[in-house]
Design brief:
The chain contains 3 helices and 6 strands; from the N terminus they run αββαββββα. It is α+β, with helices and mostly antiparallel strands. A hairpin with a 6-residue loop joins strand 3 and strand 4.
């Protein structure tokens, strides 16, 4: 990425000048980089992967996640960095929240 396209505060924060060569900075972002226009979608895909790895599925690639257990009708609608959980049994909702929080997410309940 051309270093001229990176905000100065980001260059300073991540010490990117040491990685610059001929005006270009090559780097790998293993997680999410705030301010990057693709960051929200990347974060959304990571959260979906985590839920899928923990017994939830995404029917028809709709960004809706459901529990694979037929007795658990908990579902989550995920939209970038916001999501809502619909449930009838609070224990099932708590189970989903525990999976999310157990992977480093901080959840604010409104």
């Amino acid at each position: 990425m051309p270093i001229k396209d990176i905000p100065e505060e980001t260059i300073i924060e991540f010490n990117l000048r040491k990685f610059e060569s001929n005006g270009i900075v090559a780097f790998k972002v293993p997680g999410c980089m705030y301010g990057l226009k693709e960051a929200g979608l990347i974060a959304q895909k990571v959260l979906l992967r985590i839920l899928k790895e923990n017994g939830y599925s995404e029917p028809d690639n709709m960004m809706i996640v459901r529990a694979n257990d037929p007795k658990d009708n908990t579902a989550a609608v995920i939209n970038v960095d916001n999501f809502g959980i619909k449930y009838t049994d609070e224990a099932n909702a708590r189970k989903m929240l525990n999976v999310i929080e157990g992977n480093g997410y901080v959840i604010k309940v409104d």
